[in-house]
Design goal:
With about 110 residues, the chain is of the alpha+beta class. Helices cover about 25% and strands about 30% of the residues. It has 3 helices and 6 strands. Strands 2-3-1-4 form a 4-stranded antiparallel β-sheet. A two-stranded antiparallel ribbon has the order 5-6. It is globular and about 40 Å long.
Length: about 110
């Protein structure tokens, strides 16, 4: 049996509240860096309505891929850039519904989500 897909939710409080346009600008500036992350199937940047929490939701092919990304170097970079340590929640994703492709997934896609 294949390992389950994983969803992680990363959250942290920025030094100062982040406005919607500022979030679009900041996150958009580094989004391309996630296009070729091994095992990453999907990422959404997150911002609370009041801008006091930001982060991301990630859909991974497996836990090992996520753990490889969220290493100590990544954590140190987040603390340096945003002034706070990220909190990571880990979830197994036994089934993923993909309405855009009209697919129900129990295994990671082999050619992208």
């Amino acid at each position: 049996m294949q390992q389950p897909m994983v969803v992680t939710v990363v959250r942290f409080p920025p030094r100062d509240p982040v406005g919607l346009q500022e979030a679009r600008d900041q996150f958009g500036a580094n989004a391309a860096g996630y296009l070729d992350v091994p095992g990453l199937l999907w990422k959404a940047y997150l911002r609370s309505e009041d801008g006091t929490t930001v982060g991301g939701a990630y859909w991974w092919a497996d836990r090992q891929s996520a753990a490889a990304k969220f290493n100590e170097g990544w954590r140190a970079g987040m603390i340096e850039k945003y002034g706070a340590a990220p909190e990571i929640e880990w979830f197994e994703a036994p089934v993923v519904v993909d309405p855009l492709r009209q697919a129900i997934r129990v295994d990671p896609p082999t050619t992208g989500p």
